[in-house]
Design brief:
By secondary structure, the chain is mainly β. Helices cover 12% and strands 33% of the residues. The chain is built from 2 helices and 15 strands. The strands form 4 sheets. It has a 7-stranded antiparallel beta sheet, with helices on one face. A 4-stranded antiparallel beta sheet has the order 9-14-11-12, with no helix packed on it. Strands 4-5 form a two-stranded antiparallel sheet. Strand 6 and strand 7 form a beta hairpin. It is globular. 35% of the residues are buried. Bound molecules: N-[(3-hydroxypyridin-2-yl)carbonyl]glycine and fe (iii) ion. N-[(3-hydroxypyridin-2-yl)carbonyl]glycine (MD6) binds next to strand 10, strand 13, strand 14 and strand 15.
Length: 217
């Protein structure tokens, strides 16, 4: 007994859904780790705080971000890039916790990507109304490696499109504990998070957290 309120609840949905060639949603894949993951996010943010980055176009992002691992994703007026040093603290990003590495590797393997060893974990924090506009993840040199994305807290609507910005998107709700793995032919698909609707989660209040694991080096 570890005092976790949800330990005795059955996981209602552990389905696995292929959303495109190379992309799948693993429902509740991270739910059993929820407290370890949220504790680790808090510890990371104590060292490298959440901050609202500015895009190259000059807009301040509604999503607050931090990172752990040997590389962290950063944006400013000069562009998007990975940095070994947190520009806010001028110190290395916090280490990637073993629990993160283990979860990311297991999820990737479940989706058919063996030996995924991420060196970067971007941590996104959404408040109600925050959104992430349509984009591709193309700042990583090795496109053979997948991305593993873990959702925690209140739900979000994920928009998943094609290789062209103008391609139609499909919409998938992502809830607490859901993991998306994508690579292969989906690796450069356009995607977005719609503005978060008002909601409450017992462990995160009105927040959503998303961890995206990548091999960025
Ligand atoms: C989010 N996720 O879920 C934003 N990118 O908050 C992403 O932008 C993302 O979920 C690449 C791969 C998976 C993702
Ligand atoms: Fe993305």
């Amino acid at each position: 007994m570890n005092g976790n309120l949800f330990d005795d609840l059955p996981l209602s949905d552990t389905s696995e859904e292929i959303i495109a060639d190379g992309a799948m949603i693993l429902r509740n894949f991270a739910t059993a780790q929820q407290q370890v993951l949220l504790d680790a996010i808090r510890d990371i943010a104590d060292i490298s705080p959440f901050r609202h980055l500015v895009t190259p176009g000059g807009f301040t992002m509604s999503v607050a971000m931090t990172n752990c691992g040997s590389l962290g994703w950063a944006s400013d007026r000069r562009g998007y890039r990975y940095e070994a040093i947190d520009p806010l603290t001028n110190r290395p990003w916090p280490d990637m916790p073993a629990s993160f590495l283990q979860l990311a590797g297991a999820a990737a393997a479940r989706a058919g990507f063996l030996d995924f060893i991420p060196d970067a974990c971007l941590i996104n924090r959404y408040e109600i109304g925050a959104r992430l506009s349509l984009h591709q993840d193309r700042d990583e040199p090795d496109r053979t490696q997948p991305i593993v994305s873990v959702s925690l807290g209140i739900p979000a609507m994920f928009h998943f499109g094609g290789m062209q910005r103008s391609d139609a998107v499909k919409r998938f709700p992502l809830g607490h504990g859901d993991v998306v793995v994508w690579g292969g032919n989906a690796r450069l698909a356009y995607h977005a998070i719609a503005p978060l609707k008002s909601a409450h989660h017992p462990l995160t209040g009105s927040m959503r957290f998303n961890l995206t694991f990548r091999k960025a080096g």
